């Protein structure tokens, strides 16, 4: 168990700030990650979001860039 | 929790969207992760991607033109005409990219490859109208629908770019997706200006 992950302070944004973030960056510079289940994703998701359901997340780090902004919901 | 997990694993720029998707007020898309990708998966070259994208843009333009003839309010007709005209610019940029890659500026030959009856985002006109249930006499609803369609297209191109196995196709799809983002921003401005006029 990596306890550190539970104590790492993370940045948080509300919808308006997140929209501004997306507007201020090139499309390929910001990653949007949807960690919900596929059915939820299909019912509606942020345009351009990548789907990696939470259960698959720890096996999927290689699909994401560590250095670029990553908006998670 | 997911954001914390990512931050704890070296994703120093992970940002949590507070309130999650329910709180999101920006552009949404409604396809499953594989939907529409079949349009792009069998394409072997970036030029094929451009031809497919051009087909989709043209389909959307035809849709807007059809709406011009269906709408009754002058204001709505004006907006649909404007939306159709914006697609011309979009198509020009796709052809320019085609010219850059191939060195050929023979548009006739390019147009001969275009597939008819495609709508951007991969749905048909009727599917779109049914899905959005748009009141075609309200300008804000019409622009809202156009933004949804563009958002859908942005999402489709992004997903196709993520899945593209051919590196050149991936770059082309990313470029087209970036174009869609600009397009979406322009529609947002159009919406603001029209709603502003109505308020005044």
Structure overview:
The complex is a heterodimer of chains A (73) and B (200). Chain A is α/β, with parallel strands linked by helices and 73 residues long. Chain A has helices spanning 4-7, 15-24, 38-43, 54-57, and strands spanning 11-13, 31-34, 45-46, 50-51, 70-72. Chain A is globular and about 30 Å long. The two termini of chain A are 23 Å apart. Chain B is mostly helical. Chain B has helices spanning 2-7, 38-41, 46-70, 74-102, 107-111, 125-132, 139-163, 167-199, and strands spanning 14-17, 28-29. The longest helix of chain B has 33 residues, at 167-199. Chain B is globular, with a radius of gyration of 18 Å. The N and C termini of chain B lie far apart (45 Å). The chains are: A alpha/beta (73), B mainly alpha (200).
The CATH class label of chain A is: Alpha Beta
Largest sheet of chain A: 3 strands, parallel
Question: Structural class of chain A, please?
Answer: alpha/beta
* Unreliable residue runs of chain B: none
Number of strands of chain A: 5
CATH topology of chain B: Ferritin
The average pLDDT score of chain B comes to 84
What number is the mean pLDDT of chain A? 86
Give the low-pLDDT segments of chain A: none
Q: Provide the CATH architecture of chain A.
A: 3-Layer(aba) Sandwich
Radius of gyration of chain B: 18 Å
Roughly what percent helix of chain B?
55-70%
The first-level CATH class of chain B is given as Mainly Alpha
CATH superfamily of chain A: Rhodanese-like domain
Describe the global form of chain A.
Answer: globular
């Amino acid at each position: 168990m990596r306890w550190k992950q539970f104590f790492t302070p993370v940045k948080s944004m509300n919808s308006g700030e997140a929209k501004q973030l997306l507007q201020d960056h090139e499309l390929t510079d910001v990653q949007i990650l949807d960690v919900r289940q596929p059915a939820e994703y299909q019912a509606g998701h942020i345009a351009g979001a990548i789907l990696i359901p939470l259960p698959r997340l720890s096996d999927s780090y290689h699909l994401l860039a560590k250095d670029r902004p990553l908006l998670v919901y | 929790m997911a954001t914390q997990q990512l931050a704890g694993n070296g994703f120093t720029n992970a940002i949590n969207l507070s309130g999650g998707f329910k709180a999101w007020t920006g552009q949404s898309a409604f396809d499953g992760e594989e939907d529409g990708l079949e349009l792009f998966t069998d394409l072997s070259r970036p030029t094929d991607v451009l031809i497919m994208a051009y087909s989709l843009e043209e389909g959307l333009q035809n849709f807007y033109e059809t709406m011009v003839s269906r709408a009754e309010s002058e204001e709505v007709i004006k907006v649909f005409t404007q939306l159709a005209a914006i697609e011309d610019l979009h198509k020009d940029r796709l052809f320019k990219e085609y010219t850059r890659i191939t060195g050929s500026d023979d548009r006739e030959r390019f147009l001969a490859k275009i597939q008819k009856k495609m709508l951007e985002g991969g749905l048909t006109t009727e599917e779109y109208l049914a899905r959005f249930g748009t009141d075609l006499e309200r300008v804000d609803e019409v622009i809202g629908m156009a933004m949804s369609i563009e958002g859908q297209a942005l999402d489709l191109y992004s997903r196709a770019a993520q899945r593209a196995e051919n590196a050149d196709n991936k770059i082309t799809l990313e470029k087209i997706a970036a174009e869609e983002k600009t397009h979406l921003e322009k529609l947002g401005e159009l919406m603001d200006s029209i709603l502003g006029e109505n308020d005044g």
